[in-house]
Write a structure and sequence with these properties.
heterotrimer, A alpha/beta (about 260), B mainly alpha (about 230), C mainly alpha (about 230), A: about 260 residues, alpha/beta, D-Maltodextrin-Binding Protein, domain 2, 10 helices, B: about 230 residues, mainly alpha, 12 helices, about 80% helix
Chain lengths: ~260, ~230, ~230
Amino acid sequence: MRRRSALAAPLAIAGSAMAQTPPQRLRIGFAVGYAPFSEIGTDGQLKGFEVEVAEALCRHMGLQVTPVILDFDGLIAALQSRKIDAILASMSITPQRQQLIAFSSPYYFSPVRMVMRTDARLEATPAGLKGRRIGVERGTIHERFLAEQFKGSQVMRYATQDQVFLDLKAGRLDATLVDAVIAQFGFLNHAEGRGFGFKGPDFGRDEHHYGKGIGVGLRKEDAQTLGKRVDDALAALRRSGALKALNDRYFSFDLVSPTR
Amino acid sequence: MNFDAILDEFPKYVEGLGVTLKLLALSLSCGLLLAVPLAVVRTVSKGIASRLVWAYTYVFRGTPMLVQLFLCYYGLAQFDAVRESWAWPWLSSATFCAWLTFTLNTAAYTTEIIAGSIRALPAGEIEAAKALGMGRALMLRRIVLPAALRRALPAYGNEAIFMLHGTSLASVVTLLDLTGAARTVNATYYLPFEAFITAGAFYFVLTLVLVGLFRWAENRWLKPMMSR
Amino acid sequence: MLLHGFLPSLLEGASVTLGLALSSLAVAIVLGLVGALAKLSRSRVAQGLATVYTTLIRGVPDLLLMLLVFYGGQVAVNTLAPMLGHEDYIDINPFVAGVLTIGFIFGAYLTESFRGAFLAVPPGQREAGLAFGMSPRQVLWRITLPQMLRHALPGLSNNWLVLVKSTAIVSVIGLSDLMTRGQQAAGNTREPFSFYLAVALIYLVFTSLSELGFAWASKRLAIGAKEARL
C-alpha cells in the first residue's frame, strides 16, 4: 500500500505538470443578421457586441466559446435539446420564457421602437396601424407583443431582422417593431434607411410585456451552476468597467447600466 | 407531449392547409400546361427553339427553388426600377412570387420528364405510325403524347409530391401555409415537436391522397399498357 | 469587388454542400435499390415494409423531417445514453445528421424511380433468362439490372438534382453550407440579388457537371437500344 502511494505521488505531480487540460468549451447559440450585436462579417467571421460580451464572460470563467449560429426561433429548442449550453442573442427576459429556461442577470437594456417612413401619416398605435402590415422577426418578444397588442394589424413574420428591413425598404411593410439600436445601426444609418425614422413611444418600458432586460439564456437545471458562474463573471465585468468599455466601443450611449 | 396548445391553434393549421392547397393546385396545373408544349418543342425541333427550352430547364433544374424564390422576392425588390414598374403590384405580393417561382420550377422538371418519356418510346411504335402515313401532328396527338404521358406517370407522381413539399418554402417569404402555421405555433409556445408533427400529419394525409390519385391513374392508364 | 469579399466564404460553403450531397446520394442509392426490389418482390412483408417507408418519408417535407430528426434524435440519444451508462453528452454532428436524413429521404424517392425503371424493362427479357435456366438472382444481376439502369437514368438524374438543392435546408440545423453563407452575406450587404445570383451560379456549376456525367452515362448505357427519330 505504502509502496503504491509512494509511487503515486511523484507520478501524479509529473502527470499534472505535463498534461495541460484544455479549457472546457461552452457552446453558445447566436442569431446573426443583427448588427451591431451579432453579425457575420465579410471574412465569414462572427462578430459584434454580443459576441465580445460572450468572449469576455468566458475568458473570466475559464471556458472556451464554441459558437453555434441558428435562427432566433430555434434557439430555445436547441438549448433544451442540449445542442447549445447558452443563448446570447439579444433575448429578453420575459415571464413566458422563464417558464421554459433560466436567465442570467441582464447584460443590456434596450429601447424598442416602431420604424416607419417619416412621411407616412400613420400613428404608432393599434388604432393607427389597423389593417397595416407590420414586419417582425419570428420568435421575438416583439412578435408576441404585436400579436397581443396590435390585433387589428397584419403581422408578417420573417426568419431574420435583415429580411424585415429589406421588405420595409421595398414597401411591402408599413412598419416594423424592433430594438431601436438594431434599427439605428442596421438600417437608419445606411443609405437604404433614408426616408425612414422612429415613430411612437419606447415600448420597452412596458415591463409586463418586455421583461427585465436582455439576459443570457440557460437551461433551468444549470441555473445554480453555470448560471451562478455567468452572474459572477458579469458582475466582475461590470465592477472592473470592462462591460462599459465594450459598450462604449460600439455605442455612443449607455445600454448596459440598469436605468429602471 | 402537450397538444392542448395545438388544439387551440388548430384554425391556424386549417388556414395554412388552404394556402398550401391553393399554391399546389395553381402551380402544378400551370406548370403542366406549360410543360407539354415545351417538351414537344424540346424533342421535335432541332433548332434554336429546342436550345432555348433546354436553357430554361437547365437553369431552373440547376438551381435550388429556395434561391429562385429569394431572387424573385428579395432580389428583384432591391432595384428601384422594378419597384416603380407596372409589374410591382404583382411582384410585391409574396403569394404571386411564390406561385410564379413554383410554376416555373415544376414546369422545368415536368418538361424534362415528358421529353425523356417521349424519347424512350419504343422505336417500333413510331415507325409503325410513319409506315401508316401519319403526319407529325397526328402522330404526336394519337400515338406519341398519349403513350409518353402515361409512361411519365410514375415520375410525374414524384414531381407532384416534390411540389407539395416544395410549397413549404412559402413560409420562408412570410406566407402562412402549413409550415408557416407550424413555425408560428412553435415560436409562440416553444413546442417544436407538437407543432411540427401536427403539420407533418397534415402533409402526410395530403401525400396519401396524391399517391392514391396517381396509383389510380397508373392503374387506369399505365398498367394496361404493360404486359405482365 | 462585386461580392464585397464574401467569395471565399461562399466557396467554402460550396465544398460543404458538395460533400453532403455525395454522401447522401450513396446512402440513397443503396436504400433505393433495396426498396424497389422489395416492392417488386412476391413477399407481402417486404412489399408492406417498403410501402410504409416510401409513404412515410414521401409524406412529409424535408424541412419538417430535418427538425424532427435533429432535435428529436438529440433528445432521444440524451435520454437513452444515461440509461446505458454514458455520463457524457453525445453530440450529433450536423453533417452526419444531414447525410442520414437526406439519404433516408431520397432513398424513398429512388425506390419509386427504380421501381418504374424495373417495370420498363420488357418482361420478355426476364422470361427469356429464366427459360435459359438462369436463377432469379442471375437474371437480376446480368439481365434486368443493366437494362434497368438505362431507364432509371432520367429519374436518377432528376432526383440527384433535387437532392443537391435540398441540401440547402441543412442550414436549419446549423450546418454552414453555401445557402447559409449566401443568406448571411445578402443580409449584411443588403444586396440579395448579387448574392443569390452568385449562389445560383455555383449550384449551376454543380448541375452542369452532373448533367455532363449523366449524358455520358446515358450514351454508354444506350448502346444497342434504338431511339426513334420523330
